[in-house]
Design brief:
It holds the Pfam family EF-hand_8. This is EF-hand domain-containing protein. InterPro entries: EF-hand-dom_pair, EF_Hand_1_Ca_BS, EF_hand_dom, KIC/PBP1/KRP1. Keywords: Calcium. This protein has 5 helices and no strands. The protein has about 110 residues and is mainly α.
Amino acid sequence: MVHLEFQDLLPIMARKLGGDGLINELCKGYRMLMDGDKGVITIDSLKKNSALMGLQDFSEEELKNMIREGDMDGDGALDQIEFCILMFRLSPDLLDVAQDLLHKAEQQNTVHHK
Ligand SMILES: [Ca+2]
């Protein structure tokens, strides 16, 4: 498992931003890391842009592992869904926060409909 310092930030971001805001932030992160021409995150785009995300200390091997870890269809690149799922998988706390937010949103909806 790749260690990401980044992952510690996610639960804090999630609490601050709420569910939709968090997804937006993840998408923003995705756009920062992706190859603008191909529209996916490749090892090259990751290497080029990782400093923007504070990931400059990661070795090429660690970045490759991150892609391998998240790549579900085996094309060697991360699309947006794969990236978001990877972020959630790397940060189990984030999943708790997301479920929490979901629960709250459901409660709000229930109250709203009464
Ligand atoms: Ca893929």
